[in-house]
Design goal:
single chain; alpha/beta; Rossmann fold; 2 domains; 7-stranded parallel sheet; 4-stranded parallel sheet; 13 helices; about 45% helix; disordered N terminus
Length: about 350
């Protein structure tokens, strides 16, 4: 089975053809969209991704595809994935949701472009009686609770930030001579942030620094800027900071691994010996990031369990499709949330993560 990316655009047609198409669509909608009203017994999952250019989201989509294939073999039931790329556009994503409902998808799985737009999607899904599972990019709690069949699968942004900060704190305290290049006892850092105003960006930034300062280490921020989770943008930001601050930078904190890899790209361009690099930490534990940890370029990262989240989505979707209590399939908190734990990754425990990446 292959993931199928459906276009959001339709070619223009003559007026007569458009009338027949409109009539056909109306008949299809009248016949119903839910899985229980179709004659076939296949489960259809409509999956809208905010952007497949995001390494973590791309990995998660592949994990979901693989798990679907395994589940099909195990239970002998056909499961169809209809996957779309919203390309950072909320309007595009809304159109994809409409088409998923029109095609009779039994469960919607939505990775929001704009978390404030979730209420509209919940209302559309409820009107059709189609459960909706948001994942990775968390809508506001009020929107999740609009309907009993609306759920969120993800991991706590606060936890990832705190674990990242703890990585830095432990390393700094274990070998201050290695990392405190100025010898002033103050940790000078730069921060690469995700999208402006994005919840994960804000919380990862706040809680990473909080973990360091709560550990008794004084910090000085040299610079912070958004790089939109993007490796190339992060490399450009980092080159500017290297030119401005040079050896003053002792730690580079990044809200995700792609931006941390961009910082590595920038430092590699300088030709500076690896032993003279600042400490770099990321979040996600993507395969390229694990390779960078193994090479000694990335000090550490925090595992964002893409496969665990994909597995929770599939278990929840199957339970909802089969009319079962979702709490019996996954560990639900507050009736709507499935939380996956983060884990720290450094060279000391890297081997166990490389085996499963």
């Amino acid at each position: 089975m292959r993931l199928r990316i459906k276009s959001c655009c339709f070619p223009s047609r003559p007026e007569g053809v458009r009338r027949w198409a409109a009539l056909a669509l109306a008949l299809a909608l009248l016949s119903g969209c839910g899985g229980k009203r179709r004659e076939d017994s296949s489960l259809r999952l409509g999956v809208a991704l905010y952007s497949q250019d995001d390494t973590f989201i791309s990995i998660m989509a592949k994990d979901l595809e693989q798990l679907v294939q395994e589940e099909e073999s195990r239970i002998g039931q056909k499961i169809t994935l209809l996957v779309s790329d919203s390309r950072h556009n909320q309007t595009t994503q809304m159109g994809q949701v409409d088409r998923f409902l029109a095609r009779g998808c039994d469960v919607l799985c939505i990775n929001m472009v704009d978390r404030t737009g979730a209420a509209v999607i919940v209302d559309k899904a409820e009107a059709e009686g189609t459960p909706v599972i948001f994942f990775n990019r968390q809508p506001v709690d009020e929107d999740i609770r609009r309907w009993e069949k609306s759920f969120y699968v993800g991991a706590s942004a606060q936890e990832s930030g705190a674990l990242q900060g703890q990585l830095v704190l432990d390393a700094w305290q274990a070998d201050p001579a290695r990392w405190d290049r100025s010898g002033d006892g103050v940790l000078q850092y730069v921060m690469l942030e995700g999208e402006p105003g994005h919840q994960d960006s804000l919380l990862r930034t706040e809680y990473s620094i909080m973990a360091i300062t709560n550990g008794g280490v004084e910090v000085e921020r040299l610079a912070r800027d958004t790089a939109n989770w993007n490796r190339a943008q992060a490399a450009a930001r980092m080159m500017q900071w290297i030119e401005t601050f040079g050896d003053q930078i002792e730690v580079i904190l990044s809200n995700n691994d792609d931006m941390a890899l961009g910082a590595i790209d920038a430092l590699s361009e300088t030709g500076r010996p690896l032993e003279d690099w600042p400490m770099i930490v990321g979040i996600d534990a993507t395969a390229p990031a694990l390779e960078a940890v193994e090479a000694g370029q990335l000090y550490g990262t925090v595992l964002n369990d893409s496969r665990g989240q994909a597995q929770a989505i599939l278990k929840l979707a199957l339970a909802l499709y089969n009319g079962e209590d979702p709490a019996g399939a996954v560990e639900l908190e507050e009736s709507h949330y499935v939380w996956l734990p983060y884990r720290q990754v450094t060279r000391e425990n890297l081997s166990g993560f490389l085996e499963t990446s």
